[in-house]
Each structure stands twice: as C-alpha cells, then as structure tokens.
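Chapter summary example: a protein plus magnesium ion.
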Amino acid sequence: MREALEGSQAIARAVTLCKPDVVAAYPITPQTHIVENLSELVAEGDLHTEFVSVESEFSAASVVLGAAAAGARAYTASASQGVLLMAEVLFNIAGLRIPLVMTVANRAVSGPLSIWNDHADSMAVRDSGWIQLHCVSNQEAVDTTIQAFRIAQETDLPVMVCMDGFILTHVMEPIDLPEQSEVDAWLPPFVFDRALDPSDPKSLGMMVTPDYFPEIRHAHHAAMEKALPVIEATDRDWEASFGRACGGLLTVEGDAGARVGILAMGSTVGTLRAGMAEPGAAPARLITLRAFRPFPAKALRDAARGLDHLIVIDRAISPGAGGVVGLEVAAALAGHPDMPRLHNHALGLGGRDIPETIYADLIAAIEDTDAPGFSVFDADLSKLAPEDR
Amino acid sequence: MSDPTPSGSSMPDNPRLAELRRKHGRPPQAPGAEPPQITPRDSQPRFRGLESGHRACQGCGEALAARLVMESAGPDVMVSNATGCLEVFTTTWPQSAWRVPWIHSLFENASAVASGMEAAMKAKGKNTKVLAFGGDGSTYDIGFQTLSGMLERQHNVLYVCYDNEAYMNTGVQRSSSTPHAAATTTSPAGKERMGKRHLKKDLLSIIAAHHIPYAAAASVAYPQDLQRKVRYAMGIEGPTFLVIHSPCPLGWKHDSCLTIEVARRAVECGLFPLVELERGAVTNVMPIRKPRPVRDYLELQGRFRHLFAEDPRAEEEQAHLQALADHNIATFGLTGDAEDPADTGGAALVHRGGPLASGGF
Ligand SMILES: Cc1ncc(C[n+]2csc(CCOP(=O)(O)OP(=O)(O)O)c2C)c(N)n1
Ligand code: SF4
Ligand SMILES: [Mg+2]
C-alpha cells in the first residue's frame, strides 16, 4: 500500500518490518528523525525491540556490535560527525565479520561546520570493510534497507545503506511499504553461526600475530568480492517478489548509443534524469552506481565501453587528490582498451543546491580541453581571496 | 602454609567432583593409559572459566584475579573484554584460554559491547549473565564514558576492573589510577619530578554517584572476600561494579613471588580500602586491626624506589601517601572493632610459596 511518508519515517517503518532484536542510535542531523521515529514506534508498541538509548555514536556502534555477536539482529543509524566518532568501531565490526545494518543519512564533515548533505562521512570510512549501498530515492532506501539485512547475514558482512541527508531523509514521497507477512516470507530469521553461546563457547576478536593477519585480511577482501553477486541476486529476488528493483550493483539508462556518459550516486541521479529529460537536452548514457563497496569494477567497464567521455560526479573530495569516486573509476578503467576520457567534478558539497541545468553545463564543459582533470564544479571562485583560488 | 588439597596421584572418591570434572575438566583416560598427573587444582571443585597455559608474566595479579572471578561467576556467562594485558595474554590466535563465550572489541568500549550483549539476552529471553572486563586504563580513563553510560542505563552487567594502576600492556604508562608519586614510563622520577604528580582517581565515589545496586573493591590477597563479592554481584539483577587491586610484578617492579604480599600490604596500610557500597552508600568495609605504615607497602616496589632516596622531597611524598592512607582509614572507619577477616583460608589456595611464605625475606 502506498503511503505519503517522510524519508526518515519510511526508514523507521522498514526497519520495524525487519524485526530487529536490538536498536541503538544517537541523534544527529539529518539522521535524527530516524531515531525519533523508531523511539515512537517502540513507545506505541509497534516495534518490539531492545532500544538502547546510548550516550554517543561510539557506544551505539559498540552496542549493536555486542548485540549481533550475541546472536541478535541489530540496527543503528548515524551521519557525519557521528559516523566519524564510530569509525574505530566500524572497522572493528567489519574486521570481526559481524552482520549488521546501519543507515547513513549522508552529511558533510566539519570543519567548517555544515549540517547539509554530501558524502564525506561514508567516504571517510570507505576502507572499513563495510558494504556501502547508495540510494537514489526513498523507495530505494526502504527496499535497500530490507535487502541489507538479508545481504548482511548471507555474507557475514555489515551493510551501510547511504541516503542523502535532507534531500531524501526530510522529503515526503509516496512510499510502497511491503506488508509484514511479505517481509516475513522474504527475510529469513537472523542467524550468526559464530554467536556467543555458553553451550558452545567461542572467543571472538582475538589478538592475531603476523602469522595469520594477511590471510584474515585476504579473506575479508575475498568476502567483499563474493558479495558482488549476492547484492545483485538479492535485488533480483526482491524484484521477483515485489515487482521493483533498486539497481543491483549499477544501472545504465538514457541513450545507449551516446558518446557521453555521466556517472553519479544517490539523489543526484534524480536531478540528472530531470536535466536529461528536458526538451533538446544532449543525449547521454547515465550510469547509477549503487554499490560503492564492494566496487563493481567489471560491471563499470562494461557500462563505460564505447563512450568517448565519462563525467564522474563526486559528492566528496580527497583534498590533494580529487574526487573519491573519480579516482576509483579511473583505477577501474585504467589499462583497459576502449575506455572513455574521464571528467571528474565535485558537486553540491556541504548541501549546495544542484539545479537541473547542471546536466547541460556538465556536458558543455567536455569541450573545454584545458580544464583540469578534477574540479569543484559549482564553486564560485570569485568568493575567495585570490591567494585561495 | 599448608596445602589444603591432596597433592598425591590418587583422586578423591567424590561423585560431585567426578561430575564436575566430567563437565569442565579434562577428558577421561583410556583404560591402561598412564594415570594423569593430578595437581591440587585438578581436585578442587571449581569451574575453570579461564584456563592455565596462557601467556601472563609470572606472578601476574590480573591473571589470578580473572581466574578467581571466573571460578565464582561461570559457566553461564559471556565476557566482553577490553584491550589490555588480560585480553592479549589469554587469546593469541588460534589459542584461547577462555572456556566461556568471550569477545574483545576495542580498548574503550567493553561496557557498550556488554550493554549490547545484555540487550540481546533480554530480547531473546535468556538469563546468561554478561561480564565486562577492563584494566584501569580502559576503566578509569578511555572507556570511562561507555562505563558511565552502561551504569546509567541499568544494564544487567557485572563490570570488573583489574586495577594494576598503569597501562601495562603498552609498557607501564601512567593512568589516572596510578598512585601519586609512583614512577611509570610516562611519569618517571628524575631531578625535577617525584613520579606521578597527580592523585589516584577516586573511581568508587564516581561509581557510587550512579547509585547502582552494588559496587565493591577487592584484592587478590583476599580471594575468599573477592569471590564472595563476585557471587553477591552475580545474584543481583542490574549493574554491579568490582575493582580488584591486581599487582603487576613487571610494572610495579617487585619480585613475582610477592604479588600477594604486596596486595595484602596495600590493604593493611589503608591505601586500598576494601569497601562495599549499595545504591551509593557504604555498607561494609574490611577492617584493619593494626594499620601498617605505608612505608612497608612502598618498600617492596621499585616504582616507589625514589621515595627512599635521601631527599627532603622523598620524605614529603612518603608523608603525603601516609596522609592519604590515614584519610581512608578515618573516612571508612577501617580500624573498627569488627572480626579480623585475615582470610587466610582463601589465601592458602593461591599462596604458593616464596620467601615471605616461609617467614623470611
Ligand atoms: C584507542 C586506543 N588507544 C590506545 C591503545 C593502546 N593500548 C592498548 S592496551 C593499553 C593500555 C591498557 O591499560 P589497562 O587498561 O590498564 O590494562 P592493562 O594492560 O594494564 O591490564 C593501551 C594504551 C588502543 N589499543 N586503543
Ligand atoms: S605486564 Fe603485568 S599485568 Fe601484564 S601480564 Fe605481566 S604481570 Fe600481568
Ligand atoms: Mg592497567
């Protein structure tokens, strides 16, 4: 049944459908409404879970780690400073291969302080070993959240569901929430076969010497690569049951014969779609990257083959290197024949509005052969002192 | 001291012992095989939650304390252990000395991880008790916030702090639990300094301010008292806290056969009072019939060696420490006329000899 829901409210309802045993979260804009909605569902008796009101994000991540290790389905959510405060625990969760689900309501990272959207937070923990899936719309965020619980326990990997703060979390949309009975049939009960259990005592998180450490890291990397087909298959299975998909690892749309491609993640894709649909807009192939970790390099090469130019949109930068997605796309395409020339642009940092006209501007910028490989595309340099440009 | 258990090769014919051994002990021997070597520990009816054979230093107070805690707490428990000596010496992959479910996450989150484990038990309707273990570094310092959060939220967890008064795992650096004037690698004694400049943090008072059902201080020198406190805490539904004074021969620079003696003197001089608190109020103290001078405690340990130099500052610092002990004795009424709890029966179980055991040094 379709209901008009705010993004955060929809996420809280989706989490409820997955029947988590333990939820722990700490408020931070723009994730706050998710925690508030979950608390309300608990207070009203609609969500039966141990809701742990922690004293920090660091503890939120630690609580769900402990809960999942003890055999419970667990969930948390955060953003920005909260994600960075969790960072040490996030690496630990993934390294211990503990299945968990977390929503990141993507927001810029201080300083300077900004409460608005970009991807600096989830990118800062990109190497933590979590699966990271980005959502274009609130419907995708709802569906991906439920899928995430299944992916996590099938792969013994934690899953981060990334949705743009404010742009998605605070926007009302008609959402199709599955029925409880449908989710019960689709999502198996939580299992974690290394769970702490006095009748079969195991030690988790032991000290590891150089004799075993590289093997354990290799196994983690291999598990991430093996998660690629699991992410795809889970989305296909979702589509078979619910009649809509979330874009597997990545999707390709627009003009298949176009010489120009644009790649983006998250809600920016919606803006680009709108720009592309304007009458007289130049044709392009639009690539939506859903899985950022594990990175679908092969699928990306297939999607980019035949293009002359590929514009890669970034919502986070690595100062001194360039756009984070841009660098990863460049690495994936390097050394392969028939790969397009890359144009990497950061857009909408710290919540700068991205207008539909950006589509035409980006395509026009291809002609500028003197342009640097990377730019903060929408920065107005006249606002800066000359020495800062 | 006499050994209370038989040390010969014949096992006592006791069905209860046989049953416990079947449950927790070594596997039965094949007929005709060499009879196993029976040590006194094998014949004691206790649960070995923490096995021997781990990598702690000889005379490690923390290893002894953890063994005693596990004996009284196990086997229906699960442990969240902070980074530190205890974690490292018990679990180098692929070997683990733990016979209970055990998890180590980070240095500063043992309480939060334990909170999550306890929430999971509640959600699943299980009664398994969750224990959280941390050294003084993780308890008094870096994990203090997560501990306070766990106590405030009233999780049903017994937190045990193994207090060896410094960051031992990283090579004896000062913590906020290091006593005033003690030398560590980050509070060394030198021409300008007499060891640590600040006081040992009064953690129990801060714990008391959380008004939890039960908090107590124990010492490895008083194992029966320690185990009684563990059993009492295990019976309580709600957050409980135990800090155990656990000498570290390496960090305190004392002979490894003196662990118990050093710990005992800390209690006898009043520097480490063994108190119990319920809902924040002191309900019990272990009395000291004749307080020992603090000097007797300091002189056994290299970390206080500079306090015995011919230097007016050394005298001043000794006096300062004596004043702290006197303050404890007065505040807690430690010289009250209650029974002398000497606890020798329990001590005999763990006191395995050394120069002081035979009366000489
Ligand atoms: C965030 C973080 N900072 C520092 C360390 C390094 N470290 C590991 S154990 C330890 C000291 C442990 O001291 P304590 O808690 O007293 O336990 P002990 O080893 O003395 O038993 C330190 C500083 C760490 N593991 N994590
Ligand atoms: S350094 Fe100290 S605390 Fe650590 S194992 Fe050795 S004696 Fe025990
Ligand atoms: Mg210590």
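Key point: The interface with chain A takes residues 75-78, 80, 87-88, 91-94, 96, 98-106, 108-109, 112-124, 128, 145-146, 148-149, 152-153 of chain B (CB under 8 Å).
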